[in-house]
Write a structure and sequence with these properties.
CATH topology of the largest domain: Rossmann fold
CATH architecture of the largest domain: 3-Layer(aba) Sandwich
CATH class of the largest domain: Alpha Beta
Shape: globular
Number of helices: 14
Strand content: 15-25%
Order of helices and strands: HEHEHEHEHEHEHEHEHEHEHEHEHH
Largest sheet: 4 strands, parallel
Distance between the termini: 42 Å
Radius of gyration: 19 Å
Bound molecules: iron/sulfur cluster
Number of strands: 12
Helix content: 40-55%
Length: 306
């Protein structure tokens, strides 16, 4: 049953003509009142398709809300807490791409959507964990500069031997996913009948032992549609809680119950209500940067659908 606060937000969404986009890592009370829940790619696509609303309230981190703003220049994007900033995105400022391009003038630049708008503006294309391999295959150049997640770069490189993937920087990582080390392996021994699902931001050691590798939404779909019943999951707990709630006939085991993205968890129901009332936390992107970044994002969408 929904709480009074959840009901108030649903009412406000209607009166203010707003939609609520919610990342898989948000808490369950926020997921319960979302218009759309998904990974960064799904939310980016959804953001590009939204019509007839005045406000998009984005419960995710800074770069995701920026992407929604870039794809919706005619709408106001609000973020409940402006401190929800992804530390990995901060590891690849635009200046590092400019420097890398000077060193590798013939390389194409593919950046993870987990980057700031100004970084995307310097790239040829963006990608997510669900389509990085597909997009890298489709690029013309033999050398690809990719960042900021080094584990994702290594994952793509491992499967794309005819191209060279150069990680920029060579220390980029997600602190949530890189903390999985021996636990998933230990759990595989403890639960021999369980499928180990891993996010490509995890270390090569974990990925080597995984039965299924995919983005949060790919994991969700796999868990829902595959015949398997038990899963060990190496990603942020928000997705695991979503799967436990929405796929009740299957068993989900957290590889590490303290794998929490504190930045994602900064949004709360109280802050969502506040931002819908005050409309003060607006996500703004410089129009010149937004135009360039939009090209890189839409190229990703084209190449993914191609
Ligand atoms: S889970 Fe990792 S990549 Fe995602 S927002 Fe948190 S720190 Fe950034």
């Amino acid at each position: 049953m929904l709480s009074t606060l959840q009901k108030e937000i649903l009412k406000l969404k209607k009166t203010e003509n707003a939609v609520l986009l919610v990342h898989n890592y948000q808490t369950i009370d926020i997921q319960e009142i979302a218009d759309y829940i998904g990974d960064s790619y799904e939310l980016a696509v959804k953001a590009s398709q939204i019509k007839d609303v005045d406000y998009i309230v984005f419960c995710g981190v800074d770069f995701m809300a920026e992407t929604a703003a870039i794809l919706n220049p005619d709408k106001t994007v609000l973020i409940p807490d402006k401190n929800a900033k992804c530390p990995m995105a901060a590891m690849l400022p635009a200046s590092l791409i400019r420097e890398a391009r000077l060193k590798h003038p013939h390389a194409e630049v593919m950046v993870y959507v987990n980057t700031w708008a100004e970084t995307k503006a310097e790239a040829d294309v963006t990608c997510t964990s669900s389509n990085a391999l597909k997009i890298a295959k489709k690029l013309d150049s033999e050398t690809i500069l990719f960042g900021p997640d080094k584990n994702l770069a290594l994952y793509v490189q491992d499967r794309l031997t005819d191209k060279k993937i150069i990680p920029i920087p060579d220390y980029g990582h997600c602190y949530v996913h890189s903390q999985f080390t021996y636990e998933p392996v230990k759990m595989k021994i403890e639960y021999p009948d369980a499928i180990l699902m891993a996010h490509p931001e995890c270390s090569p050691e974990v990925l080597k032992r995984a039965d299924f590798i995919g983005s949060t939404s790919q994991m969700y779909t796999y868990a829902k549609t595959s015949p398997y019943k038990k899963f060990i999951v190496t990603t942020e707990i928000g997705l695991i809680q979503r799967m436990q709630r929405e796929i009740p006939d299957k068993i989900f085991i957290m590889a590490k119950p303290d794998a929490v993205c504190t930045q994602m968890k900064m949004h709360t129901l109280e802050k969502i209500k506040e931002v819908l009332v005050n409309k003060d936390k607006i996500v703004k992107v410089d129009s010149e940067i937004a135009d360039k970044a939009r090209k890189a994002i839409l190229r990703m969408v084209d190449l993914t659908n191609d």
